[in-house]
Write a structure and sequence with these properties.
341 residues; mainly beta
């Protein structure tokens, strides 16, 4: 065999060894993640009597992407595995929504509604990749946001669609929030680049809060499901989350400082009565997520693993709303938390 042929075979052998080594490393990482993650105790048979968390597993392995539950009295205890696999999940009062991506030659997206036993119900097609999801405290309304263009709020030019549906019927209360009128300081407010995302509901069954993005700014809006209109309340609020006692909003506070002109987000809390905002100094990492209240004292959010092996692995952290102590890791290998009280 001539030298060129031998050299070619040597390159092929090296490439094959490199690929085999890469596959082995990925397999070992997945096995390590699965071994390190809290173990599932089996399928959901009965939900905990006390408060529990519903979340998406991010442990590489058999449970990856599946919805799981764990009692918050012992968050490091055994988890229960559900049959649902989701990109985003939320749950309240016996009603849940699972935003799915069905990947194939053409990827399609859908919102799957489910009940207290995590049994799938009605399915609604989605116009793009899932972003945010929220169920109202009474379980009667479901909101979800998808990207129509772009895939991140840090990228210019993104567009979103936010919808609200009736959980009992699966019918749209509003298919696109952009169709509802908005006022600012009592005057009609409308621009061509309106985008809405990050809905959070009040207990009264009609009020909600959300983010309106326009002209490079973000606004907190308050909406009314009966009057079908919204009004701006403040600037600089993204992905609001209403506290259980309905006195405060936790949200992402955007600040300059990221690489290449990108923004950073930090957890902040607004007192609704005074509109005063407090950026929590205990968490200095970039929190690009929709936060959730664990109770009236702590706020939950997702962050990549400390020793991150892949972008897919995420933990859920908790920080006091009064910034009185450092954040703590509450749920390892978890994402998109919802707290059922």
């Amino acid at each position: 065999m001539n030298p060129r042929a031998l050299a070619f075979l040597g390159i092929v052998a090296l490439c094959g060894a490199g690929i085999a080594g890469y596959v082995m490393r990925v397999r070992n990482q997945a096995q390590a993640a699965e071994a390190a993650a809290p173990q599932a105790s089996g399928r959901v048979d009965a939900l905990p009597a006390d408060a529990f968390a519903v979340f998406r597993s991010t442990a590489l392995g058999a449970t990856y992407g599946h919805v799981m539950t764990v009692g918050l009295a012992a968050p490091d205890g055994a988890r229960s595995l559900t049959p649902l696999a989701c990109e985003r999940v939320h749950y309240a009062a016996g009603t849940g929504v699972c935003l799915r991506a069905d990947r194939g030659a053409v990827t399609t997206y859908k919102a799957l509604l489910f009940d207290a036993r995590f049994t799938p119900g009605q399915t609604l097609p989605l116009a793009g990749p899932p972003s945010r999801a929220r169920v109202s405290p009474d379980g009667k309304r479901i909101a979800f946001t998808v990207f129509i263009n772009g895939h991140a709020y840090s990228n210019p030019g993104f567009t979103t669609r936010t919808s609200i549906v009736d959980a009992a019927t699966g019918r749209y209360v509003v298919e696109d929030l952009e169709t509802w009128p908005v006022t600012r300081d009592g005057v009609a407010f409308k621009e061509t680049d309106f985008n809405f995302w990050g809905v959070t509901f009040a207990r009264d069954g009609r009020r909600f809060y959300a983010t309106l993005g326009s002209g490079g700014k973000t606004y907190l809006v308050e909406g009314d499901l009966q009057d079908k209109r919204m009004r701006t309340l403040a600037e600089g609020v993204e992905c609001p989350s209403l506290s259980p006692d309905e006195t405060r909003l936790a949200f992402k506070h955007r600040e300059a400082g990221g690489a290449a002109g990108q923004y950073l987000w930090h957890v902040a809390v607004m007192d609704l009565a005074s509109r005063r905002v407090r950026v929590l100094q205990g968490e200095q990492r970039n929190v690009d997520d929709q936060v959730e209240w664990k109770d009236d004292r702590e706020i939950l959010y997702a962050m990549p693993l400390d020793a991150q092996r892949s972008a897919a692995e995420v933990d859920v952290w908790a920080i006091p709303a009064d910034d009185s102590s450092p954040p703590r890791k509450l749920l390892p290998y978890a994402f998109s938390p919802a707290v059922a009280r």
